[in-house]
Structure formats: structure tokens, C-alpha cells
């Protein structure tokens, strides 16, 4: 690895550089849009940015999810991040947090969040009749520890026990056999509420969301940004319990459903109170659908991108 990986990295820079020069000549390319991967990849990104400027190509530098602020402040990678920002013609950011940070550092940026694709319709309240009276919670995404699966299980089981609430927690997404076995072994006391549903396609996920009461998004993943799944959940009007991690708070825009990773008791009480408050739930359903339509629709973000490319 110590020999092969550096070689592959160098070859990728050479290959990208040749492609860039070729496209400039063959297709008269005048703008390049680069999405940053951070870490050591910022070196490759900076080289491509500087080469672009040398041959007359303008650069849109797009900072998406990940630990950008961490790498910006890194004693080595931070230098490359700063030169890349200064060299770019336009800078896009996925979260308001990044925009505010860059403003303090002296950089202008444009807020460009993830969007909901047009194929995911904005459903109204057309939930099917329930087969039972259980309160239905759901999670959709990568089924790994960092996504808060275990926190959700512990909290929901405690809510069920303390307040005598019948509920279930559907977990949708591919899960390794090792992690699934770990969950079953460690939280066997809560097995009656846990449902591993596995991978589902987009249409199936829509149906699950439309027939669920709440979404659990207790991610602690350090690379969390603007989750695509959150857009899809909001489009169906499913209220979301979440941790303030990444850009999630900015995206959802309602602290009433925000849980505190350090306050287990308060989280239990908040979840139970909202379960029993139909007015809050219905108000949140309408607010989420309106918010995603007004802020994270594909059309709105295409319009932003068109203006960005008018450099």
C-alpha cells in the first residue's frame, strides 16, 4: 500500500490534468465545478484548480459534507484549503454553518444545499388506514452505529415502557450481518419494537414514510452534512427527531424536535410529549412539506446553479 497508493494518487493527478487540457481544447470548456473530498485529496483539487486558472478555465469550488472546518484548521491540509478558496472564482457551501464560518475567515460563498429530486412527489396527508394502533417510527439510510441507531432503540424502548405506548421502529437500509447480530444480542430486551426491513427502493421508501409517524435521525457521524434522506422525509411531512449534528438543525429548522445527545431524560420526555400532542404533529407535517418545497426543491437549486455558472 505504501508504494501503490501514492502511485495511484500521482497518476490520478496526471490523468485529470491531461483530461482538463484536452477538454479545454476540444470542447472549449470555460468552467469547471469541483466538489471537495478534503484530506489528502485537497492537494489534487488544488493542483487542478491552479491548472484551470493557468489555461483560462474558471473554477467553482464546492464544499459539501464532511469535516471541512477541521481540515481548514489542520496544520498541513489547512494551507491547501485556503489557497484553493482564494483561487476559486466562486465558492459553494452545503450548509449555513460553512457559510458563516467562511465569512468570518474573509471568504464569500453561496449557500447551495442538497435538493429533493423531482421524482419524489410532495404527498399530502394520504396515510393508509393503520393495521394496528402502534406509533410508527422509522429510520432510512446507512445502518451503522454513527447514525444513532442504538440511541434511537434505547430511547424508544424507554418511552414505550414508561408511558405504556405501543410503538415500533422500522430500520430501512442495508445492514451487515455482524451489526445486525450485535443489535439483536445487545438490545434483545427491545426486540419487540425493532424491525430490520433491509434495502428498499425509492417507491417503497415513500410508502414507508407515508405510513410512519416519526423519523429518527440521531446521527453522530463526524462527516454528517445535509442528508438527502432528510429532504425525502420532509417531502412526505414526517416529523423528525434529530441531534444537532452537521447541517441537520439548519435544514429542519425546528428546535422543538431537536434532542440533546447529553440529556437522556429530557429526550424521553420530549418524545413522549410530542407523541401525545396531535396538534404539534400536524403542524410540523405541514411546515416540513412547505419548507422543503420552498428551500430544497430541484428547480430552486437549478436556478442558483445557473446563476453561479454565469461567472
Query: Low-confidence spans: pLDDT under 50, at least 5 residues?
Result: none
What assembly state would you assign to the polypeptide chains in this entry?
single chain
Q: How many DSSP E strands?
A: 10
Sheet with the most strands, sense and barrel status: 6 strands, parallel
Q: If strands are numbered along the chain, what order do they take across the biggest sheet?
A: 7-6-5-8-9-10
Helix content: 40-55%
**Computed structural class:** alpha/beta
Which geometry do the CA atoms define? elongated
Order of helices and strands: HEHEHHEHEEHEHEHEHEHEHHH
Q: Roughly how many Å is the radius of gyration?
A: 22 Å
Mean pLDDT: 92
Provide a descriptive summary of the structure in words.
The structure is a single chain. By secondary structure, this protein is α/β, with parallel strands linked by helices. The mean pLDDT is 92. Helix 6 packs across helix 11 (264-275). Strand 3 (90-93), helix 5 and strand 4 form a beta-alpha-beta unit. It has 13 helices and ten strands.
Keywords:
311 residues, six-stranded parallel β-sheet, alpha/beta, four-stranded parallel β-sheet, 13 helices
Helix and strand arrangement:
Elements: H1 4-27, E1 31-35, H2 41-54, E2 58-63, H3 68-72, H4 77-87, E3 90-93, H5 96-104, E4 110-111, E5 135-140, H6 149-163, E6 167-172, H7 177-186, E7 194-198, H8 202-210, E8 214-217, H9 228-235, E9 240-243, H10 248-252, E10 258-259, H11 264-275, H12 278-295, H13 298-308
Parallel strand pairs: 1-2, 2-3, 3-4, 5-6, 5-8, 6-7, 8-9, 9-10
